[in-house]
Write a structure and sequence with these properties.
This protein is an all-alpha fold. The protein contains ten helices and two strands.
Length: 279
């Protein structure tokens, strides 16, 4: 498993860097729309949709909505307000998700129907798409790399949390973090992952890569790190309710697209909202 994860990382990390730094914003958005469509295909399993045609239609519908969010010809101010509303509401969603994870499976009867899980799908996938676009667009006209670096930093925070938790958990893990949701995760792994990510955050800040106040950078980074763990646990909860181990098998050692971006779907919107609003 570890070798598969390493091989997948060797392939995926250069692809992410190419996508962030060497594609135009419109191409980047189009690729993220495709990623959203694939994630929706995998999410359809949580809705207990088994018919491939129905799953494809659901994925296509989500991709079309994402495309409209980015390409619709409306004034910039109106689009910005729409983005801000959706991102702000995503904060509420992740607070709800935290409660659901902590109370699982006692509260499962409140959200096990398809309508509620469609709502969850919207506030997981759409704020993630908007936040990566917003971060990637920062200072795009004056320096197209500013937003790319900031977005890469957010990704690195999530990867560091995941990697630190993996090794700390294997080495020191004894106490279960959320045994009814994800039995393999431990409190020691959680502490290790958060510690590694915070260390990277401090190193990055004092490297003077960003013109952001320390308290804004630290608060945004800290809550993004915590949110990344929540995103992972939330998807684990959905998979457990649906009776599946992985969301897909597209990425060796990592499962499907959702398995790879579950932490990002929480961390990137949280980092975006806090870093921009606190600034």
């Amino acid at each position: 498993m570890l070798i598969q994860r390493l091989l997948a990382a060797i392939v995926l990390i250069p692809l992410v860097i190419i996508l962030l730094f060497f594609t135009k914003l419109s191409i980047f958005a189009s690729i993220m729309i495709a990623v959203g469509g694939i994630a929706a295909w995998e999410w359809s399993q949580f809705l207990h949709i088994t018919n491939k045609h129905s799953r494809l239609m659901f994925a296509f519908f989500i991709a079309v909505l994402l495309a409209l969010l980015y390409f619709m010809p409306i004034p910039f101010e109106l689009k910005s307000k729409l983005y801000n509303i959706i991102l702000s509401l995503s904060i509420i969603w992740w607070l709800v998700a935290l409660y659901l994870v902590m109370s699982y499976p006692k509260t499962i009867h409140y959200w096990s129907n398809i309508a509620v899980k469609l709502f969850f799908a919207f506030f997981t996938l759409f704020p993630f798409f908007i936040s990566v676009i917003v971060l990637r667009s920062i200072d795009y006209q004056s320096n197209c790399y500013t937003g790319a670096i900031l977005l890469l930093y957010t990704f690195v925070l999530v990867w560091a949390t995941d990697t630190g938790a993996y090794f700390a958990g294997r080495t020191f893990g004894k106490r279960k973090l959320a045994p009814k949701v994800s039995p393999g995760k431990t409190i020691e792994g959680f502490i290790g992952g958060v510690s590694v990510a915070l260390l990277i955050s401090l190193i990055v800040y004092y490297s003077n890569l960003f013109n952001i106040k320390l308290y804004v950078f630290f608060i945004s980074s800290f809550f993004a790190i915590l949110a990344s763990v929540l995103g992972d646990l939330t998807e684990s909860m959905f998979k457990r309710e649906a009776g599946i181990k992985d969301s897909g098998n597209l990425i060796p050692g990592h499962g499907g697209i959702l398995d790879r971006i579950d932490s990002l779907t929480a961390a990137v919107p949280i980092f975006t909202v806090l870093s921009l609003y606190l600034s």
